[in-house]
Each structure stands twice: as C-alpha cells, then as structure tokens.
Amino acid sequence: MIILNSEEIDSLVDRTELIQAVEEAFRIHAAGHFAMPVRAHVDYRNKTFLSMPCFTDQSFGAKLLSLVPANAEKGLPPAHGVVLLNDGITGEPIAILNGAKITALRTSAVGSLSIQYLADKNASHLGVIGAGVQGFNQALFACTVRKFTDIHLYDCREKVLDDLAHKLAALLPGSRVTAEKSSLDVLDHSDVLITVTNTEKPLFPDDRSLFTNQHFTAVGSYKPEMREYPEAVFRNLSCLLIDTEHALHETGDVMTPLERGWLTREQVIPFDQVVTGELQKTANENKVTFFKSVGMALFDIVTADLIYRKAKQKGCGTEVRL
How far apart are CA 316 and CA 8, in angstroms? Predict the structure, then answer.
C-alpha cells in the first residue's frame, strides 16, 4: 500500500485528465454501475464529519472527512481527511490519499465540467466569491475549460482576497484578475459565477433583473441552513441541475426553493442527464443556468483511482506494510 500526501498528489494532477475522469464518473452514475450508500453526515458544535463509501467496477473505498469552518479564522484549512482506496477484485487496501486534496480537486473538476457543458461558449468574465482553497482551485479548473479574459474575486476577508488575487495573477497571466469590493460587484461583471462560501444568508439582493445571461456554479451551502442565493435566481431558472440527489436533503440552496415553491421537484434534474445528452435544453428566455454541487463518494473514488494509477507508474508515494 502507498500513502500519497498533498504535494505528491499535486505533482501527479493533470487538470484536463481529471475533468475527463469526473465526466466518466457522471456516465457511471447515469448507467448505475456503482454502489454508494447515503453518506453518514454527523454535525456537532459547528463541526461536521462525513463518511463516504463507494464501489465501482474497478476499485472501491471510502473518504473520511472533517469540516471545521472556524479553522479559517486560525489560518487553517476547513477540511481534513483521508481517502482509503481498495483493490476492486481482492479488496486489499492499496492506497491512502490526502482527503482534503482529493476533495478540492474533484469538486473543482465537477464545477468546471458544469461550465464546459452549460456556460455560453463566448463567456469571457469569470467571477469567484470565496477566496479559500476551493475558490483557488475552482478558478484554475474553470480556466482549463474556458479562456477567461477577466477574473473577478470577492471575499469578506481582505487579506485572503488579496492573497488569492496575487496567486491567480501569477498562475494565469493571460487573464486580468481583479479583487472586487462586494459580491454584487462580482455578479455585475461576470458571465460565469462560482460561489464557494458557508453563508447562511444569500450573497445577493433578491432582484430578478440581476440574474440573466449567466451561468452559476454553486459549491458552498453544504447544510440545510446555508443559502448562497436569493429567491430571484430560482424564479429565473428553467431547471436546477444537481450532481447527486444528496443535494435534495443537504443544502439550503435546493431544499429552501423546493419547500417555498420557487421551484418544482420536476425542475431539479441530475446533471448526468446533461453529460449523457438526455437533457438538451437547460435554459429558458432568461438564459440562466444553475448547477449545485454537494459532491459524492463516486467522484472521490474515481479521482483517487486515477491518482493512484499515475503514482504507481511514476513511483510516487510512500510504501507501507500493514
């Protein structure tokens, strides 16, 4: 068995390759060639622990992940965890991978895939609200599937915002990177908007005229009491696309619109129908598309399996015997 830390995983990642692997995960999901129970989601005093097992035909395993939002105030990552990967035939443990890194990468690959399929081909201005680890990775992956000329950023933490702006400017020299003064400023300037916050109140005014001709990738709001978007967004949608049906029971950005009648259940559609071509029309006259991601273990296992195979090819990782 090998152990792969964050730096080793980074050295093995090709963003385009990973996006393609996650795309295949959606096809696996649509075909039903997997087994994935409802994940155990335990909350205690503003801390969350997730246990996420999954089987595919090639491998299986589980991610164990902790989420502590207060870590951000201490300069620490909010997510920690591991992914345990098992051989699909023998069940032998073959790898332990840094779970926070796998989460960051696969979530960003999922988000960028929604942009690839749903955003206007001529979209040139990207907005990102939330300047943490996920905001950084989402921006990089988004720029892998679209050539954005401008990137607009906002976070209520000024130093974190400035740090992200400088990092992205160095890594994406073909794009102008601007730290904006508010969420609304980002919204006003963006063709594509990614939100990665843990807010419990919507980031924007409840005004339908603000939400037209845009694609939204909603990544924050991983609890029922959390909401990043106001009623106005949902009123402008033809459909709300979700990565997994877990979203129906976990996030306020799906639960609240359904409970309050802003959307019907029939309007909430699995994104795998877009990937397979079953669903062709995703926007109405408002030209707004909306994708909500809460993640699932299938993404973790497919990502971990890809990284493990590359590690074996290149001799990366620390070999251990149990």
Answer: 7
Inter-CA distances, 249 with 50, 70, 244, 253, 256, Å: 15, 24, 10, 10, 10
Global pTM reads 0.92
Is residue 319 within 8 A of residue 2, CB to CB? The reply is yes
Is the separation of the CB atoms in 247 and 216 below 8 Å? Answer: no
Nearest to 204, CA basis, from 192, 186, 226: 186
Q: Is 125 left (phi over 0), alpha (psi -120 to 50) or beta?
A: beta
Distance in angstroms (rounded) separating the CA atoms of residues 186 and 71: 25
User: The dihedral of CA 280, 265, 223, 165: what is its sign?
Assistant: positive
Could you give phi then psi for residue 277, rounded to 5 degrees? 90, 0
Strand-pair category, 125-129 with 192-195: parallel
Tokens read off for 27: 């096809």
Strand blocks (E) in the chain: 2-4, 34-35, 40-44, 47-56, 59-67, 79-87, 93-98, 125-129, 150-154, 176-179, 192-195, 214-218, 240-242, 268-270, 288-292, 318-319
Q: How far apart are CA 68 and CA 128, in angstroms?
A: 21
The pair phi, psi for residue 241, each rounded to 5°, is -95, 135
Chain mean position to CA 320 = 31
Tokens representing residue 280 in the block: 């062709």
Going residue by residue through the chain (322 aa), what tens digit of pLDDT does each one get?
999 999 999 999 999 999 999 999 999 999 999 999 988 889 999 899 989 999 999 899 999 989 898 998 888 888 899 999 999 999 999 999 999 999 999 999 999 999 999 999 999 999 999 999 999 999 999 999 999 999 999 999 999 999 999 999 999 999 999 999 999 999 999 999 999 999 999 999 999 999 999 999 999 988 899 999 999 999 999 999 999 999 999 999 999 999 999 999 999 999 999 999 999 999 999 999 999 999 999 999 999 999 999 999 999 999 998 8
